[in-house]
């Protein structure tokens, strides 16, 4: 059995702009030199042959820009095709692994689901509490009211429903009172 990615080649960085331009300059220079040699073989001197080759070739800067755009597009298409082929291979490999050991795949999926769910829950709590603060008009004026239950041995205890109702009706110092579930 061969390793999973045995056929892949390490190709980063891809052909960069300067590398494409250097390759194009070499290619264009080669064509100009070859045409110059052909013209010299007909009896022209080097300078006249070079000028004639450049004249026949046309606008060199336009050709360079055009070829560079074409090369970049071709490289992008090749990278996209390679990425898609690798994705298909990875999916095939994954599906073979899932078919081979479905219980392990289920455990991995459940673990990921629990991890993502826990992460989302923790983030939403931290986002509300730490980043955006309490959803009240003036959160800096909020007060916590507790009942001190020293004889029962507890520093603080839950407030009974009847006690809460008494506080809401008798309160003159607070704009409103609410309970935390």
Describe this structure in words.
With 181 residues, the protein is an all-alpha fold. The protein folds into three domains: 1-100, no CATH class; 101-134; 143-181, no CATH class. The protein is built from five helices and two strands; from the N terminus they run H-H-H-H-E-E-H. It has a two-stranded antiparallel ribbon. The chain is elongated and about 120 Å long. The relative contact order is 0.05. The model has no long low-confidence stretch (mean pLDDT 83).
How far apart are the first and last residues' alpha carbons, in Å? 60 Å
Widest β-sheet, arrangement of strands: 1-2
Can you give the helix content as a percent range?
55-70%
Quickly give the structural class. mainly alpha
Strand content: under 5%
The total strand number stands at 2
Discrete helix count: 5
The SSE order reads HHHHEEH
How many domain regions?
3
Strand count, sense and closure of the main sheet?
2 strands, antiparallel
Mean pLDDT across all amino acids: 83
Stretches with pLDDT under 50, minimum 5 residues: none
Radius of gyration over alpha carbons? 38 Å
Morphology: elongated
